[in-house]
Amino acid sequence: MNVVIVESPAKAKTINKYLGSDYEVVASFGHVRDLPAKDGSVDPNADFAMVWEADGRGAKRIGEIAKMVKGASKLILATDPDREGEAISWHLLEALRDKRVLKDVPVERVTFNAITKQAVLDAMANPRAIDVDLVEAYLARRALDYLVGFNLSPVLWRKLPGARSAGRVQSVALRLVCEREAEIERFVKREYWSLVATLATPRAESFEARLVGADGQKIQRLDVGTEAEARAFEKALNEAHFAVAAVEAKPARRHPFPPFTTSTLQQEASRKYGFAPNRTMQIAQRLYEGADIGGETVGLITYMRTDGVDVAPEAVAEIRSLIGKDFGARYVPGAPRKYTSKVKNAQEAHEAIRPTDVRRHPRDVARFLEPEQARLYELIWKRTVASQMESAELERTTVDIIATVGGLGSSLGRKLDLRATGQVVKFDGFLTLYTEDRDDDGDDEDGKRLPAMTVGEKLSKQAIAATQHFTEPPPRYSEASLVKRMEELGIGRPSTYAATLQTLQDRDYVRVEKKRLVPEDKGRLVIAFLENFFNRYVEYGFTAALEEQLDLVSNHELDWKALLRDFWRDFTAAIDSTKELRVADVLSALNESLGPHIFPDRGDGTNPRLCPTCGSGTLSLKLGKFGAFIGCSNYPECRYTRQLAAPSADAVGDAPAGASPDGTRRLGEDPDTGLEVTVRDGRFGPYIQLGEGDKPKRSSLPKGLSPAEIDIERALALLALPKEVAVHPESGKPILVGIGRYGPYVQHERTYANLEKDDDVLAIGSNRAIDLIVAKESGAKGRFGRAAAAPGRELGEHPTLGGPVTVMAGRYGPYVKHGSVNATLPKGKAPDSLTMDEAVQLIAARAEAAGSRPKGGRRAKANGEAKPAARAKSAAKPKAAAKKAVKPAEKAKT
Prior knowledge:
The chain has 894 residues and is α+β, with helices and mostly antiparallel strands. Among the domains are: 2-130, 3-Layer(aba) Sandwich (Rossmann fold), CATH 3.40.50; 164-183 and 476-584, Orthogonal Bundle (Topoisomerase I, domain 2); 191-249 and 396-421 and 445-470, Topoisomerase I, domain 3 (Distorted Sandwich), CATH 2.70.20; 262-390, Topoisomerase I, domain 4 (Orthogonal Bundle); 602-647, no CATH class; 723-785, no CATH class. It has 25 helices and 32 strands. The strands form 9 sheets. It has a 6-stranded antiparallel β-barrel. Strands 2-1-5-6 form a 4-stranded parallel beta sheet. Strands 21-22-23-24 form a 4-stranded antiparallel beta sheet, covered by helices on one side. The longest helix has 28 residues, at 132-159. It starts with a strand and ends with a helix.
């Protein structure tokens, strides 16, 4: 028996069908070993020796694979064809060697760019050895990330309370987001006016022309800056006579885009469908691993982690044949199109992302796929086919118009210049199938045709429009545009983009608002600290150069240990330089760096750092137990504090007073009890507290309510929760409103309903509360009167154990269910993005932690012996145990 190792169960199932009964294909479930998350896992003093460790799941998987390999005819490592896939194979090989199970078993490494029968069989016929250069590039990258994380993060914790960690690539990506936010904050809008004339030819064909010059001087976009100037031009144009001065029509061609790489797929899926990069890669992974199409499981796209834009010659021939058949010979260029990329690492420059068989039209396979999979497959299919289609032919027309005012010979005469532009598609070419969405909001003149005009022809005026505009700041990065910028700078590689962006969100350094990335104050503090004290390690050029060095390692042009030695020498010197760094020095530097953000100009000439409470103190950045805040220099006489972000101009004069440097602010006293009411910063966010003691009454703040907005009246209202807001129309029992662990809610007996985003927990009315409860109770009842659980989203059959795997919405959050095993989804993981591979790993980990098998049921001891507690219980009831004798056949069956 030949044992084949791949990463995922879905891939294993597909490949096993192709290879037949002489092969047993098993999944490693990704990496089986990793560096332990503790100091010393990479030892620079021992020439960067690395300690690898298998966690519970990994160790169990290694043991299972070791049993299969014993006595096998051959071990074939068939993990993904990239640096990470090579590393997984290397880890498995090393772990199996440690277990001494490969004594007489030959080992081969195979790779395939697509999971199709022909690709898999071709790979099996052409095995190779483990690529040591790719493995060493992986080891160097893993060591660098570990050394930065485990040496830089402790500096952050000591010098900047509240910071979580810093990473080699993620910190540079965070810097991009923070710098863009700083640009937006520094931006000063500028007024400008545009003047557009609606004109008509003698044949009554109308069009628009824009003012571009006056009296021999060009007028640029921002040159008309006041209403007075605009009105003067408007008056002159209303009195002018118009004539055509020049007509120019130029042919142009627009060429198709190359097929998708990892980054361009992430960008376009984000622009067209709003998919996050991480989600795009999950969907693409499932398309790559295969789907059941008409009774046959087949991979639909080639490998989705690639920098390459080349396509195999046989695939190009199929695409050109399909274009001629479906669109006509006019759409097939004379020669196949050849695309090249700037990838320096030839060993990782795989094919572009394309359909494994272009003859599988999206409309034909859509019914076999989930909606998101069908949309992404169609996007990849269209981009691939369009890349080999004929260019679009355009005609760009420019018409220059002279507007004469008062006669050029008179003293009041003047000449104004206008221009009309248009672009029409003469032959659509690839545009008939595919157009790329753009991040910018520029005017697209496709399809805007100008009427036929001749030089000297008189034009009539229909309308003159003077329109006011204001310049806008640069837009915040979307996930797609940030990936594009990282690729332009050479930061990271295809396999890292999605994980980097997700890490920034998981660590609360950035948040996503309206599909744009907004840096949190915590993230801006971290970047300000790194820019002041570790500037080299967040420089774009330095990070890109390090990526190029890693590529040199994978190309066998640079020794990986030499790379690590050079990096470590300078990095440790930078770390050592911060040992004597005082918190006061850090605060001084951050006050300077973040000044425009935390102390913005109020626009009234006053000092933005002047304390609004005492009027004499200076506001500055402070560090408390739970992170940074702004406080007054006159503390403790003045207890003014606020959050890091500056309040709006309207709120500055009403800033709350009475706070201490640890973030506690006194609001007043409860008139009923006389106890002090305070607002505080806690581990899980701000909250209200009444009095002191072991168990004082507390209330969380509703989401969206800032501590700076809390006054004594609102605080007392929150402390009064839960309270009765209505009476149930049927039971006559009260309906309560309160704030719980998962946010605001209404409650009737044992039925709970969450308040929606627009509901105010302090202002919710009786009708609204009744509607929410009745809606919750109107569903089918489950046990104890609760609404029955929704049926959930079924992922399919468990690949190794059988039985359905389902994603459920539970009372305490989403979870995945298989038999009697329920595994909670990780924080931040969207239920609709969970794949079967991830579900299987969660189920296996949960089953192992609970001491049960994934199919459920109680776990028996290997030797049939009961647990001590069970033995004691059995001994206490000898008569009950003797009542029923177990027959030999039953015992054997058990």
